[in-house]
Write a structure and sequence with these properties.
Elements (H helix, E strand, L loop, with lengths): L7 E10 L3 E10 L4 E10 L2 H14 L8 E5 L6 H9 L3 E5 L1 H10 L7 H14 L13 H31 L6 H30 L2 H10 L7 H11 L8 H7 L4 E2 L2 E2 L2 E2 L3 E2 L5 H17 L1 H11 L6 H21 L11
Parallel strand pairs: 1-4, 4-5
Antiparallel strand pairs: 1-2, 2-3, 6-9, 7-8
């Protein structure tokens, strides 16, 4: 039995969040560095489940002066309801990058992977790390969240437009296609075009209301190949880079980090992980192709990467990564892009 004279120095709740449910582990650390699990339990990822979870945590908090830190991974959007719920309760929330948690799990030599085991591991991450400052999650402003939702809708509309145009092309080249179906597809394409313009205008109007945001985006737009919409999508998906302390974390979050497979004499293919935010990669693909043709610095870089290669995909991915790093750097420094910076 734990000595009741020992003081509690840290309380952590590790949470493994899924679409329909989440698993929580409540750990405490005493002044002698001993660690005790106060409970593990699964809850529904619903308003009722969130209330039950908070009550469960409140019962286990025997030292109100030492506020618990609630830790979860930034995977998809399923963590958001819980993060906002806890933030509204004035609780400390830490949303960690999935790759950071993954590397910590490897360091713990964990071989079993279940929701319960993951929640315990995330709680242990919180015990061992000194989470403060930028580690504590701050929700985006209401306006920024609206911009993010609009940018995601813009992506969805673009995908639907591309699909509709492919279907229209097939209809126009098929034998005996029904005229009314062709007309219907044309009206569908027109609808998507109108919706895309409307969403872009709404985003621009919202951005123009924030002088600082508008100014920083204008500076980043000096990079040839980067459009206003692309920059907005990157900022929206990274919450203005609030989760990131360095470029390596950002590249990993976007799934643009390189994986090498080598062992002894074996040398496998080098490729990107793709274990990150797919919306970021999707937003950067066409700008990378454009930049590799019209941005002289990136064109030289693209040609150097592809030298001696039969396929050009590796060069495009490298330019995507360069553009992401450029957006991050210019945003942080609040500067315009200088194409021949090193020469200057």
């Amino acid at each position: 039995m734990k000595n009741k004279n020992l003081f509690i120095v840290k309380q952590v709740v590790g949470i493994d969040v899924g679409k329909d449910s989440f698993y929580a582990c409540y750990k405490i650390q005493y002044e002698d560095n001993s660690i005790v699990i106060k409970g593990t339990k699964s809850f529904a990822n619903t308003p009722v489940g969130l209330d039950q979870f908070y009550q469960w945590c409140t019962i286990r908090n025997k030292t109100p002066k030492i506020k618990p830190i609630y830790i979860m991974e930034a995977t998809g959007v399923y963590y958001e309801e819980l993060a906002y719920f806890l933030n509204n309760k004035k609780e400390k929330v830490s949303v960690q990058l999935a790759q950071k948690i993954k590397y910590f799990a490897k360091s713990c030599n964990l071989k079993t992977k279940t929701d319960k085991v993951d929640s315990k591991m995330i709680a242990q991450f919180g015990i061992e790390k000194n989470l403060q400052g930028t580690d504590i999650w701050t929700p985006p402003s209401k306006e920024f969240k609206i911009i993010r939702d609009l940018s995601r809708e813009h992506t969805s509309l673009k995908q639907s437009l591309t699909a509709a145009k492919s279907q229209q092309h097939a209809l126009n080249h098929s034998h005996g296609a029904f005229d009314e179906v062709i007309e219907l597809k044309a009206r569908q394409i027109e609808f998507y075009d109108d919706q895309i313009i409307m969403v872009e205008n709404k985003i621009k109007n919202l951005v123009e209301l924030d002088n600082e945001l508008h100014s920083k985006i204008k500076k980043i737009s000096t990079v040839k190949g980067l459009s206003f919409v692309t920059i907005i999508k990157i900022l929206a998906e990274t919450n203005g880079f609030l989760l990131f302390n360095n470029i390596r974390q950002l590249v990993s979050y976007a799934g643009l980090d390189v994986i090498e497979k080598e062992s002894g004499n074996f040398k496998g293919k080098t490729k990107i992980s793709k274990k990150g935010n797919g919306r970021i990669r999707s937003a950067l693909y066409m700008p990378a192709i454009s930049a590799s043709q019209y941005n002289q610095t990136l064109k030289t870089f693209y040609n150097r990467i592809n030298e001696g290669r039969t396929t050009k995909k590796q060069g495009v991915v490298a330019v995507m990564r360069k553009l992401l790093i450029l957006i991050y750097t210019l945003w942080k420094k609040d500067e315009e892009y200088i194409e021949n910076y090193q020469m200057a």
